[in-house]
Amino acid sequence: MELRVIGCHGGETPRHRTCAFVVDDVLAIDAGSLTSGLEVKEQAKIEACLVSHAHLDHIRDLATIADNRCQLGCPPLVIAGTRETLRTLKKHFFNNVLWPDFAVIPTPAQPTIEYLELKPERPTMVAGRLVRAVHVTHTIDASAFVIEGSGGAIAYSGDTGPTERLWEVLNQQQDLRALLMEVSFPDREQRLATVSGHHTPQTLAIELQKFRAPKDLPTMLYHIKPVFQAEVERECAALKGLNLEVLQLMDHFVL
Question: What stretches of 60-178 show up as alpha helix (H) in DSSP?
Fold first, then answer.
């Protein structure tokens, strides 16, 4: 299973891009920077996009990738998420006000996008991979994902603060190769992290101890706020007994 990091930050500057990852060139995880970070030919290869929740930094480039793929005449892009996430996208995003409804463009019979509802914890085939959505704790309906391929599984936390069910699921998961885990703010901003549903290094360390063997789990950190990048990295580097790596733009892993 190949993983490419297109965007991995909790904000945007010329040197930071919001969250978007691509598995095996065909399955995107979130869409904060799918078009700002991928060439048009790469965008055309994507078959589906898992959407963890409907906050703008995770969905923004669904608008522009739909536009590009419509012009290219690509097969429909499958947008997969929980019922509430898809409802929000339909009502507030692809609503013919904020952006055209590409679920009926160019025609209802041949749309640019299609929606696929992921029922919590029910395995669903998406772009040839078995996907489970697991509810996590954020300020709106939000999900983590467990993605299984022929070579093992990876997990993606989505935006979350301290949560429980995700760890129960991961502790039962066989052949878990890596966890993409959010951390956003430094410890001194704990109050802001708590009210916004995110982690600091101190809550991250507590959370990872809920996994059966945290030292053995490659944990790839993302969603650090650009303003706090150096501070969060220093605090994460000081954590003991964990297997942490801070993701960088255009990292490429074979897991």
Answer: 62-72, 83-92, 165-172
